[in-house]
Each structure stands twice: as structure tokens, then as C-alpha cells.
Please model this.
Amino acid sequence: MATIGGIRAPLAVRTRWREKLSRYFPECAYVRCHPHGARLPARRWRGLGVSLRDKWYCSPRCLLPALERSILELLPAAETAFPHRRRVPIGLLLLQRGVINEDQLRQALALQQEHREGRLGDWLRRIGAASELDITRALAMQWGCPVFPLERDQGYRLCAGLMPLTLCQTHRFLPVFYSADRSLLYLAFTSGVDHAALYGIEQMLACRTLPCIVSESAYAVALADMENSSAPAPEAMIFDSMRDPFEIAHAACGFIQQLEAQSVQLARVGRSLWVRFLCHSGPRDLLFHFPAS
Ligand SMILES: [Zn+2]
Model:
């Protein structure tokens, strides 16, 4: 018979009491958590354990199997979930808009084929057929998103704390505008929108992400500015050779113990697995880079 203070309580009171107890002293979500041979999972003060996806675990040891499963779910190629849609070629867009003529397009295509490198837009710029602004506008049309005026809007400085700068540099994007009230983040790209990256960041930061296009030169200036900023983006520990999900989960659990992290979050951003620990001192990040498949 369930009692509170030795007195049998009505069901509603007992339920409320259990809910309150669970808020401060939750049960470990690991089904095999039976400390010291106890019949029930550990119920401890929340501040001692670690959370992953709304579930609480009493220790990194109990978290490990769930972390391994989460990493295994995230590792399959993110690109397969966001197949590339066929888009109007940039040369054709520029031709239709009267920015370039057929001869210029033929010349740029021939140069690209001859050198077997570089984007068509770069070759069009090299032969003087189009400006950087023309290419940026055409890219935005191609991807159906706006051009962000990064040259005159330094809103990206206010986004510095959102993610490690290395993640931006590796995947060639930059957070340029964030509204906490609307829970909205604009992510700028220079050569095309990476929908997998948008989705991963949306999951990690629990906000809506929208793409925009910026010019290569403005992007380079903003990155240099961020690198030299007095309020730099969080630094991440980078792992280039660790690819086994179980090894990654073990390593992450080691950091949880070392950092006394209260929560761990995971996201797949392109060929990187982004692991973020929420600690008393603020967020700490790990990045695991995977080779192109
Ligand atoms: Zn446990």
C-alpha cells in the first residue's frame, strides 16, 4: 500500500508526489541499471547524472548503450536522406537573364573541361563575363533562397557562440542571423545549400534553420573577422581518425565524466558528427570527421 508519511494517500496525490519526486530524483533510463543488486533502477538527484534526448541516465556507464545506438543511427551517409534535386544549371540561368552570351558560356565551359577543375561561375568571372554579384545572385536563384548582405550586416558576430568555427570552415557555411524570440537561424552558404547541414544544426540548436547565399569574398572576410574576434566561437576538439561508433561512444562517455557534463547532444552535419556536452561552465564540443564515401 503506497503511503506518504505513513498515511495512505489518494491515487491523484500519490501520482503528483511521484511526478515531483521524478523531477528532482529521476529513475535511470537504462533498463539494466540495478545498482548494488537493487530491484529498481537508480533514482538519484538529477544533477548527478547525464541526459540524452529527454532521457536521464544515472552515470556515463548507463548512458553508453543509448549513446552507441544514437551514434549508429546518425552515421549512415547523411546525403542519402537529402537527395540532390536537379537544378537549372548556373550557366543557363545567367544566359536567360542576359548576364552572359552564348559565346562566353561556351568559352567558360571549354576552359572548365580543359582544366578539369573549378566551378563554371569561377571561369565566367575569370574571363570577365560575369561579376561575383552576378554569380551570387544566380546561385540564390538556383537554390531558391535569398542573398544575404554579409558585406554590410555583421549579424554573424552575434551568432559566434552557437557553433564551433571549425564546423563552419569545414562545411563552408556561416550562421549570419539568429532570432532567439522566433527560434530562427539563417545559415549562409557560398556554393550551394547543404540541406543535411541545415537539418543537423536544427536538431542540435532546437531552432528552425533557413538557407541564404553569400559571396565568396564576403564569406572569407567574415570568417577572418570571426577568427580574430575578441568573442571567439567555441573551440572544438577534433578527431579525424576515430570512425567506429562504439569507440566514439566510449570516448564521449570519458569526456562526460571528465567535464561533469549534465547533458549530451548529437547531430550529423555533412561528414561530421557533432557532439556537444552541456556543462556548468558552458557547452563543450567534439567533432568527428568522416571521409567522403
Ligand atoms: Zn543507471
Summary: The two ends are 59 Å apart (CA to CA). Residues 23 and 46 are 8 Å apart (CA to CA).
